[in-house]
Amino acid sequence: MLKIYDVSMAIHPGMAVYKNKAEKRPAMEVSRDESKGILETRLYLDAHTGTHVDAPLHVIPGGPGVESLSPAAFFGPCRVLDLTGVPEKIERRDLMPHGLSAGDFILFQTRNSWSTDFDFNFVYISAEAAQYLAEAGVRGVGLDALGVERDQPGYPTHRTLLARNIMVIEGLRLKEVPPGSYFLLAAPLLLPGVEAAPARVLLAGRQDFYSFLSNMNESREMRSE
Q1: What is the mean pLDDT of residues 64-82?
Q2: Which one, out of 48, 62, 99, 136, has a CA that is 20 to 30 A from the CA of 22?
């Protein structure tokens, strides 16, 4: 059985939202038609609710929106790095020992994943670290906080990453995920002209995933003989 980690936040009215702002809290309006036996729910969501993906439009005026992001960028190998020892912000020195390579999709597991409420002192990615990630040529980054930076004037982390088309996932839940290599599947909602979108993000052990595919192919071949 292929083990899959769902590293997404559950969306509900009592969930953690950025800086506990009331306007960012999701709401659900339920309607029932008892005569027809039908239940319908209307959702009111901020585009940055829970686990979500940022597009360049978020910080670059006139930049591309979510519809411009290639689905292929969110489908493929990734690495989960253990940075639970980082007290405040991820810096260049925290990344250098991990041997980042061009094309890597890096997910940062920090103490954030153990917080269920919004932490105003969450661990974030410094501008210096963002520049290092860009220099390394990574294709994407993910952080277990509702923002990849906090209170940095001019949003340099966002701008450095998004200006280089580096995919950004925020709001991951990585508490149960051992550090290592995985196969990533992330699916942001297709919202044309919008700067961000909620996403469901799944991880499977990379070798387990490839073995699973191999076994499926072998089964199909046996059935076709």
Answers
A1: 96
A2: 62
